[in-house]
From TrEMBL:
It comes from the Bacteria. This is Uncharacterized protein. The lineage of its organism: Bacteria, Pseudomonadati, Pseudomonadota, Gammaproteobacteria, Alteromonadales. SUPFAM superfamilies: WD40 repeat-like. PROSITE patterns: PROKAR_LIPOPROTEIN, WD_REPEATS_1. The keyword Repeat applies. Keywords: Repeat, WD repeat.
Length: 334
């Protein structure tokens, strides 16, 4: 029987590691530009819909900054310990910050507090877990830890409430024409519900809690991921389209953030570590993985957003904004 030497064993280990992790090993992109928006790690952070502004929570303050220049535009004192979520309106005129059972809204153009509102769920112990704010007319969606969704229509002075999930709502979004609400939660459900009645029109169930979710501009494509190994691209309104499972070699991956390109061609996902992955949304195949700029060993992406020119903007827990030219990256995969 032929003996295996040390060099052969080393080669076998290298081959095995390459086989298991070669597809997902991130690489540094020397072309992407980045900008520091904070000098310290942040607790919460969101990118505006047009990817020109970001809101960050750190040091007991919410700071709204211009992404390209890093110039601070607004800054407000908040209760940092109890803050649960941030949201910028689609026209960057309003900022919402949620706390346990309270919502504060600032008028960014007037640099002043617009109002504070109390919000409850079906359970007396429910707290706000997700908030999304829209302007012209002003509309607020607030998801609760008990699975309740609250819709506050300020123009018509209406408040609607529905128990859409059996556990904490972790993701919320309202489609481009404000007709369908995408919600996902720790019950493993992702749903599209009518904004007028709050009744579900589409739902899909995973076995474990949803850790990331994203929707296309018109909800023609949904992405959903659980806490283990179920990650799917869904076509809610297609009669023939079956769910597309993401294709990778590891046993499982953790997905922390996600964004779909306007054309529906690409999916970007953030991990629990210092890298993100670009996928072909048509077939679920990985195109490449990229390492983000980081200032700490615990850096990870908190939010990501595509614009119409396929520039992906990412915001990390280090308060670093990066800009990625997806057309170039997709054309030159490793």
């Amino acid at each position: 029987m032929k003996s295996v030497g040390k060099n052969d064993r080393k080669l076998s280990i290298i081959v095995l590691v390459t086989f298991l992790f070669g597809c997902s090993e991130p690489k540094k992109d020397p072309q992407n530009a980045y900008n520091h928006l904070s000098e310290a790690p942040i607790d919460l952070g969101v990118i505006s819909q047009d990817a020109t502004v970001a809101a960050l929570l750190y040091g007991g303050k919410v700071t709204v900054s211009d992404i390209s220049s890093a110039k601070i535009m607004n800054q407000f004192e908040v209760d940092q310990l109890n803050a649960s979520d941030l949201s910028l309106s689609q026209d960057n005129s309003l900022l919402a910050v949620s706390f346990e059972n309270k919502l504060s809204v600032w008028d960014l153009r007037k640099n002043a507090l617009k109002g504070q509102f109390s919000i409850a769920g079906h359970s007396e112990f429910a707290k706000i877990s997700q908030v999304v704010i829209y302007a012209n007319p002003m509309l607020v969606l607030a998801g609760m830890t008990d699975g309740t969704l609250n819709l506050i229509d300020f123009e018509n002075k209406l408040t609607k409430q529905a128990k859409l999930h059996d556990a904490k709502i972790s993701h919320l979004n309202l489609g481009e024409h404000r007709q369908l609400i995408m919600s996902a939660g720790h019950d493993g459900q992702i749903k599209l519900s009518h904004v007028t009645s709050l009744t579900p029109k589409y739902s899909y169930a995973l076995e474990k809690r949803v850790t990331s979710a994203a929707s296309g501009a018109l909800n023609e494509t949904l992405f959903v991921s659980d806490a283990l190994n179920e990650q799917y691209l869904l076509k809610p309104f297609s009669d023939t389209g079956m769910p597309i499972k993401l294709n990778y070699r590891e046993r499982f991956r953790w997905f922390r953030a996600a964004a779909l390109s306007p054309s529906g061609q690409y999916l970007a996902t953030g991990s629990s570590k210092y890298w993100w992955t670009l996928w072909d949304a048509k077939n679920g195949r990985q195109i490449d993985a990229f390492e983000i700029e980081s200032a700490t060993s615990t850096a990870m992406i908190l939010d990501m957003h595509f614009n119409k020119d396929n520039i992906l903007t990412t915001l990390s827990s280090d308060g670093i904004i990066e800009f990625w030219d997806i057309n170039t990256l997709a054309a030159n995969p490793k």
